[in-house]
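Continuing the series of single-chain predictions for the mutant panel. This is the parent chain; the variants come on the following pages.
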Amino acid sequence: MRTQGNCRTLTTTRLHIACSEEITITKVLAERLHATGVADELTDLTKRELLAGIATVLLQDNEVVDESFYGFSDIESRTPVRRDTIHRIFSNTKIITSVAMLMLYEDGKYQLDDPLVKYLPALDNLKVLKTGATDVNDTEALATPPTIRQAFTHTAGFSYGTFQESLVDRLFMETGVQDRNGTLEEMIDKLAGIPLARQPGMRWQYSIATDILARLVEVMSGDTFADFLSTRLFQPLGMTDTGFHINDDQVDRLATLYAPVNMMDESKGLKPMSGDRTRRVPGSEITATGNDRSDDGQSPRGWAHRTPTGWDDAGPYVRFRCRVEIIALTGRT
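Parent structure:
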């Protein structure tokens, strides 16, 4: 496994490292990282509190060849990041959601080009915001219904309500589409009254589509999304620290979330986003640790994502593959 000079740049906040020469991975990884300056840079990021803590894993041909930990899971108590630190993996939950859907595809539950409305009848009367519209009520009929394939690829026409890319985004906020105390079924009912941002298949747009896939998992399996992941993925793979909620005995291992003290001046350091470190993680994101590995000790189990997609036991789609990748899970959004 090699990294070719100037062919790859590792970017994390202000970290920009391009290899100046080809490095063949044959020696102890710690020495190689020291030679490239990566370890020093990651250490510096935590010392300057640009990031609270970092956990990295490097794999070669699906075998873990190095794990390193930098900084703190909780700065105030000086608790270091460890192998069993529990991290919120946020949109990586989308990866796990897609795996769940692909497992159901293998079970013959659907075809990729099936319309969403076939399984989610609440979406039967979707409208589309007209191109150039200046009012959310300026809509037109669907040219074609959005499909499961388009939901997988974020081309179904939905928005997210987060990035203010469309007039419809404010409706996500007003109707509470992403209410963390709500259910996936309730989310679909709210989405049914919001126009699509564009006609299905016209453009890629990061969206709530993967949350829709999570509801499809429930409809097709008859289980809640959390129960399906637990019984079909996490339990078979021994992912004991991966899930939507943490238990009381896991609280001390949950990394604190941090944000910059001053968004315009990163040198001011970080501040906790929540004063209550013991609260349970809401249902819109999964938590995982670097300790969640498959029984062969090689394939990571918990690295792979309701905001809610490889491992042999769960099917070929779950086989985790990595060539030259440094995966960082941090305590900062």
